[in-house]
């Protein structure tokens, strides 16, 4: 599995990288702009990501903006919603407003922080990635 992680917090980034690495190759970015750029390059190289994990609160471009950018790139490349990359929002923002907005923008799963490894693995199984 090819994974993209966008996380600005060093400790969380290190934890998530170690956790996700057992499932595949994990590329890491520190803000939403880098994530969108990495996603665009993966499409141009015809090696799209299977999973993108996005934090919401990041500098330069937040997770919502990055998610919109990713979904727009998929549309531009003729990728249907059904065939789109699975996106898990990983964030401390767990209120209803933020959860609703993430799903409206096209996230697949919304996972609150701190990350519960067992629940995260169950989510990966549920969306068919492991």
From TrEMBL:
Annotated GO MF terms: DNA binding
SUPFAM superfamilies cross-referenced by the UniProt entry: CheY-like
GO biological process: phosphorelay signal transduction system
Keyword Phosphoprotein: yes
Residue ranges constituting the Response regulatory domain according to the UniProt record: 2-128
Keywords for the protein's UniProt record, in alphabetical order: DNA-binding, Phosphoprotein
Pfam family of the protein (one): Response_reg
Superkingdom, natural source: Bacteria
Keyword RNA-binding: no
Residues bearing PTM 4-aspartylphosphate: 55
PROSITE patterns, per the entry: RESPONSE_REGULATORY
Known function: May play the central regulatory role in sporulation. It may be an element of the effector pathway responsible for the activation of sporulation genes in response to nutritional stress. Spo0A may act in concert with spo0H (a sigma factor) to control the expression of some genes that are critical to the sporulation process.
The protein's name: Stage 0 sporulation protein A homolog
Classification of source organism: Bacteria, Bacillati, Bacillota, Clostridia, Lachnospirales
